[in-house]
Amino acid sequence: MKIKMGRGKVELKRIENPTNRKVTFSKRRDGLFKKAIELSILCDAEVALLVFSSSGKIYQFSSHDMDRTITRYRNEKGLHKMNSHGARTIEVWKNEMDEMKKTMDALETKQK
């Protein structure tokens, strides 16, 4: 898959050279965090961003309290609904699948 980025088309595939991969990760992570900060400030949006590197290191940004934002997300998605064993209910799984299908359909339409 090729995606047009700022200066030209970039083929999206794993970067094989470990040094280049780490440099690209660092630069793109920084750019992603910059955009998240801009979005939260310019649009007064509640933004939370979690990134786990391939080595397992976590990077995070939250415009508000991270726990509050995650709790809000879980409530919005119905993830707080658990059965007596602490597992998600079938209703929650169905809702999540419906949302994913909508997202996939939108992405497929956009790609055409």
TrEMBL record:
One of its GO terms (biological process) is positive regulation of transcription by RNA polymerase II. It is found in: Nucleus. CDD domains: MADS_MEF2_like. GO terms for molecular function: protein dimerization activity; RNA polymerase II transcription regulatory region sequence-specific DNA binding. Residues 5-65 form the MADS-box domain. It comes from the Eukaryota. One of its GO terms (cellular component) is nucleus. Keywords: DNA-binding, Nucleus, Transcription, Transcription regulation. InterPro entries: MADS-box/MEF2_TF, MEF2-like_N, TF_MADSbox, TF_MADSbox_sf. Its main location: nucleus. Probable transcription factor. This is MADS-box domain-containing protein. It comes from Mikania micrantha.
